[in-house]
Amino acid sequence: MKPVADAAGFCLDRASERLHGIEKKAMMALSMQGGEMRMRTPTMEDYLETIFNLIKEKGYARVADIAERLEVHPSSVTKMVQRLDKDEYLVYEKYRGFMLTNKGKKLGKRLVDRHELLESFLQLLAVPEDVVSRDVEGMEHHVSPETLDALSDLLQFFAEEPSRLRAFHELRALSAEAAQETADATTKNPLESANDRMMTKSEATDTIKTE
Question: Cβ distance 84 to 48 under 8 Å?
């Protein structure tokens, strides 16, 4: 089981690194915005998260950068930026770029934390990276602050009790091994399967004759 234990330790270390800087209970702040939260759309959140990340990485965010990151047309970015400006998440000046307001910075940070928390959780379970990316995008706009808080507690629990995580990965490894054996048995040589069926039929016929 050593490889499983090593994998569990690697997943836990990686998740712990990603969670560094995410304040405990921070996700609950997303629920404190009342009706305003319900007014935001998944698309608006994607834009805010992307803008926040770009500014963090490069010090600025241009329409072209956002369009490339989100794989959308620049005109679509301009329209959304104008909407975010109207909702006071950023200040936009045509041909001069834009910057996040304090409101936009706070929400952008929370959205990034939410994304990283979900990503860390799935990585902790050793979910394949391509699946992690796809699932996080599908989950993050619909998961509640209460669930995020529970996941945060679970990650903290595994950090304090790594043996529990290793036991989970060992169980998963045994389950995968059993599933593979079942699949191998089901997909064995077609000729052997046909012979088995013929033998079974022959045995049944002999039983009937005997009776």
Answer: yes
Name every residue whose Cβ is closer than 8 Å to that of residue 119 and which is 6 or more positions away in sequence: 18, 132, 136
Residue 102, both tokens: 């304090």
Comparing C-alpha atoms, which of 114, 99, 93 is closest to residue 49?
114
Query: 130-145 pLDDT, tens per residue?
Result: 999 999 999 999 998 8
How do residues 4-43 score in pLDDT, each as one tens digit?
Answer: 555 555 555 655 555 554 544 444 444 444 445 556 899 9
CA distance 38 to 40: 5
* pLDDT reported for residue 105: 95
Contacts of 67 by beta carbon, 8 Å cutoff, 6+ apart: 73, 74, 76, 77
Judged by DSSP in three states, 42 sits in helix
Element holding 90 (H helix, E strand): strand 90-93
* Phi, psi for 89 (deg, rounded to 5): -90, -20
- Give the pLDDT confidence of 56-73 residue by residue, as tens digits: 999 889 999 999 999 999
Whole-angstrom distance, CA of residue 200 vs CA of residue 64 = 68
DSSP lists the bridge partners of residue 92 as 98
